[in-house]
Amino acid sequence: MAVHPVPRAKPACSKFHYEEQLLDKMIRAEIHIESLDKKLQQCLTENLQSGKELKGYYHLYVMKFNKKVQEAHDY
């Protein structure tokens, strides 16, 4: 009984297999970047709002302080 080697078949890939994989990877990367951009914009907006609130509190504090200084000066 003779054993004949079975020829291995080459993987059945499309002609543009590499390009398809690359395009898929680029699309996933773009979606991920868009998600990160949305999160970054949200954080920046929240921090800007917090900064405006802090600035408002600071100005209020300075105004109250100046008023007390003026009252002490007038006393």
TrEMBL record:
Domain of life the protein comes from: Eukaryota
Protein name: Uncharacterized protein
Organism listed in the record: Dreissena polymorpha
